[in-house]
């Protein structure tokens, strides 16, 4: 008895499916997508297994999970806070205090390290033997000493050796330096102080407008205008005039010694100063070598051509060499900025209240919410690094040479 028609139909379908499957498996595009999908699925399953096992173990031990602890009262003080904080605030508030302190030292460190690094890098190429050797010694010393040791040096050997508050080093009548930190006068703004702010904004807008006008004039006529001095004059004259015209609404609050420490004014704690000095000086040694390499990568013929046109060395460096060197300097410079931000976590060694010390340290010890706290801390550093990379990539595309 012959087999029914359905058997032949199903057999044909199986054979056809096998042939199509074989063709797909031999298709490079399909195989690449398939393997990537399998790898992604395996990674997701691996992460899910770790999280599920961790939550199960914590539940068996009676350890609470979740982010409800952020609303609980912290109960501990923080030495430096850019926002209002005391012991009655929540753990969520400590997170933001630590985050702002980390951002503060990172931003200030990047600015100082960049300025110092460019100065040392240019000095390294100086024709003056003494200046060049001094820059080389600076680079070799600070680049080869571990950062943690440099932090300890500035904090314990330098700042902790300063006199007590009663024997403070005074600079004038409003600046005092002692073992507790640096204290100086704080500006206090009165009711009409907003006029000074408006005058400052007007000065900035006027300076930018004048710079645009001066550049257009130079392109049209070839005549150069003093952009820098005019802009600085506007920034000084307009706010000063507004200050006196509005009745001098700003006065200085001078720090005064009361008890064992100074009260009033602005105080910079020694932990911040030590960390900022160490990060800036250490990172600047690497930035200096990056700047030196970028300048050396520019053809010497560019410098000779600029000098032959009568440009002084300062303008040659600023207008000809540095703009071409930036396309080489920016990518490794971004890495140094990221390293500085991440190295700021070493602040815990001297008690600076950054995110790691305040949140991943004290808060973690009090709450035991290890997974949530470490995950939030890692997310913050990841976000800061990605944001820094984004800004630097935008700037890199702006200064890159566009080939015609």
Quaternary organisation: single chain
Number of H/I helices: 12
Task: Give the N-terminus to C-terminus distance in angstroms.
Answer: 80 Å
Structural class: alpha+beta
CATH A-level architecture of the domain at 91-166 and 269-399: Orthogonal Bundle
> What is the rounded Rg?
31 Å
N to C succession of SSEs? HHHHHEEEEHHEEEEHHHHH
CATH superfamily of the domain at 91-166 and 269-399: MetI-like
Uncertain stretches of 5 or more adjacent residues: none
- Provide the residue-averaged pLDDT: 86
Instruction: Report the sheet with the most strands, covering strand number, pairing sense and barrel closure.
Output: 4 strands, antiparallel
Which strand order do you get reading across the main beta sheet? 1-2-3-8
- Give me the CATH fold name of the domain at 91-166 and 269-399: MetI-like fold
For the record, the CATH class of the domain at 91-166 and 269-399 is: Mainly Alpha
Q: What form results from the Cα inertia axes?
A: globular
Helix content: 55-70%
Tell me the total number of β-strands: 8
DSSP strand content: 5-15%
Membrane topology: Multi-pass membrane protein
Family: Belongs to the binding-protein-dependent transport system permease family. HisMQ subfamily.
InterPro entries: AA_ABC_transptr_permease_3TM, ArtM/GltK/GlnP/TcyL/YhdX-like, MetI-like, MetI-like_sf
GO cellular component, one term: ATP-binding cassette (ABC) transporter complex
